[in-house]
Amino acid sequence: MRERFVEVTTDLLDTHDRLSLLTADLSARLFDEARASHPARVVNLGIREQLLISVAGGMALAGMRPIAHSFAPFLIERPFEQIKLDLNHQGAGAVLVSAGASYDIAGGGRTHQSPGDVALLSTLPGWTIHVPGHPDEAEAQLREAAAGDGLVYIRLSNQANQRAHALRGGARGHGFRVLRRGTAGTVIAIGPLADTVLAATEGLDVNVLYGATVRPFDGTALRAVVAGQRDPAVVIVEPYLAGTSVAEIGTALRDLPHRVLGLGVGLEELRNYGTPRQHAIAHGLGGAGLRLSITSFLGK
User: Fold this and answer.
1) What are the C-alpha distances in Å from 147 to residues 93, 94, 108?
2) In the sheet where 213-215 sits, what is the strand order?
3) Where in the sequence is the domain holding 91, given as residue range(s)?
4) At what angle are helices 2-15 and 135-146 packed, to 10 degrees?
5) Which of 155, 177, 204 is the last residue of a domain?
6) Does the keyword Cell inner membrane apply (predicted)?
7) Which of 90, 118, 122, 195 is packed most tightly, with the most Cβ within 10 A?
8) 9, 43: one domain
9) Is-above-0.90 flag for pTM?
């Protein structure tokens, strides 16, 4: 996804005169071509993530459309105060594009892991948060965000599904897509976990919904799927902190008795470096772990 991000952003800079790109050393060399063509609009600020966000806010207030990029912990967690004040408080729009996801850079240790980024950003209003599961989805989300004016976070990952589930039939909406129908419960798969969820629920009598956008949360689609069910059971599988969207489900189904289980990255810090796959299995996000959690919750 990051390679697609570089390719598409380089193209967008050629066609959108008010678009700018800000980096904080990470990935900066990937934009050498774009910097040579647009030296005033492609700026590497060095390892100064707070400044990265503040400059993005200033550019937005000056009428530009900034894209700020770094790894997730350095883009969201480290400069969170600047996001809150220099973007939200000032009413300045920007596009934040991260890489690394929760533990894609497992060899980098805890400093390069950010399972709490979506939960943290969800404490602020007005953000559209995309979690693409395929490079094609990431490209569509990026092109839409570049042409807009609002606050957008695009969370890229090295993990990807085999197909772009959110773009079936050319659709580019932000809502959930129904991948499978069932009657015993509903499982929502977010972003790059869709293929694993589909495999884990093979043969189970459950609905499977897919989402590549988690904020705003598509409660309308969820309600439509569970309509008519008695005491619906909902499982949401997210590739970041477990339970991040449980409150959103509660709000969507607030007038319906229901059960909900949030699966994702656990709070416990895993201190062995390992590989991304090993981290996923340890957090119960491998196929076997997901099937066990889902079937236990549904009672089947």
Assistant:
1) 11, 11, 34
2) 42-44, 19-23, 65-71, 94-99, 151-155, 127-130, 213-215
3) 2-155
4) 30
5) 155
6) no
7) 118
8) yes
9) yes
